[in-house]
Amino acid sequence: MFSKINKLINKYDKIIIHRHKNPDMDAIGSQVGLYYLIKENHPYKEVYVVGDQNKFDKDNLMMDIGDKVFENALSIIVDVAVSHLISDDRYKLAKEVLIIDHHNNEPDIENAVTFIDTSYSSAAEYIVDIFKNLKYKFNKSASSYLLWGMITDTGRFQWMKDAKRIFEIASFLSENGAETRDFYNWLYTETLEERKMRNFFQSNYVYEDNVAYLKNNKEVIDKFDVDFFTISRGMVNLAAGIEEIKIWLNFTYNKASDKIIGEFRSRDIVIVDIAKKYGGGGHDYACGATLNNWDEVDNVINDYKKLIKERNNGQKKVIRKN
Ligand SMILES: [Mn+2]
Asked: What structural domains and CATH numbers belong to the chain?
């Protein structure tokens, strides 16, 4: 099933691994994990990891490489399959492109060998399954990064599409030396300043009709000296875990694009279709979209309120039928 991947990697002496912009730990974990896998199993190959950096590049591994490196090389793109989201678009200079992703988006990269399987809860889980299948040897570094990707994309093993497979793969990685204590400490430690900032956003959430939302305009953003995603993605789940709140939304003004980025989450209602309606995408219960103005933001909020209302009505019908 994965022999095509094996053939591609065997064919090239130079391999550059990409992932999405503004990486989360699954993007970095699957990218760097794959880097260590290939280095361990093909020591004579040149392997590179590229892309923008943030705190998730824990060990400062991203490499600055020239365009020439891409000549006659294979680019592997993980955890993303949509061109405008890929960090470092010089994969276009590579001889061939391989994509390994788990997102429910329409891929738009021409002539790429594409492996997308949305049954995986993280790209890291998918990569382990592939390379375990191909009988690769897993060292401590590869196992650690891949497990970290799995841990974070499942919300510390909360959101799992296939728990049996996830625990088997996690167990396999532990067997191969994956580190967890230092990682969890790193993951759960924040500065006092960060804690205070979270408290600020927590208290700003608005709760209406089973929906929670947060609108972070320019003035709010300017209060804090943090990067955009710390607020946009970092604050959305402050409204998780409230019984009455079925869907929670975080809208943040983005200076760089002069647009508003919406992050959408739910426990068990499929919300990705509304994200797609506004040109966005992602997973069933965790997705997002870019909005042009605050009126459009209100439309999104209303659409989600409507979705819950329709769902409530539908549920009543089912109860009557029984
Ligand atoms: Mn992912």
From this structure: 3-187 (3.90.1640.10), 192-321 (3.10.310.30)
Question: What is the distance in A from the centroid of ligand 1 to the CA of 126?
Answer: 10
Q: What residues are paired with 288 via a beta bridge?
A: 263, 281
DSSP string covering 65-86: --GGGGTT-EEEEES---GGGB
Confidence of residue 155 (pLDDT cuts 50, 70, 90): very high
**CA end-to-end span of the chain:** 44
Q: Say which residue the tokens 């769902």 belong to.
A: 311
| Mean pLDDT (the chain, rounded) | 95
Tell me, in angstroms, the distance from the centre of ligand 1 to residue 285's CA.
13
> How close is the Cα of 124 to the center of ligand 1, in Å?
7
Is pTM beyond 0.90? Reply is no
Distance 282 CA to ligand 1 centre (A): 10
Distance of CA 271 from the midpoint of ligand 1 (Å): 17
Strand pairing report for 286-291 and 259-266: antiparallel
Q: So what's the pLDDT on residue 95? A: 98
How far is 169 from 228, CA to CA, in rounded Å? 33
Q: What is the percent of the chain with per-residue pLDDT over 90, rounded to a whole number?
A: 90
**Long-range contacts of the stretch 216-224 (C-beta < 8 A, 24+):** 216/250, 216/251, 216/252, 216/253, 217/253, 217/294, 218/253, 218/255, 220/253, 221/252, 221/253, 221/255, 224/197
Cα torsion through 107, 112, 116, 122, rounded to 10:
-90
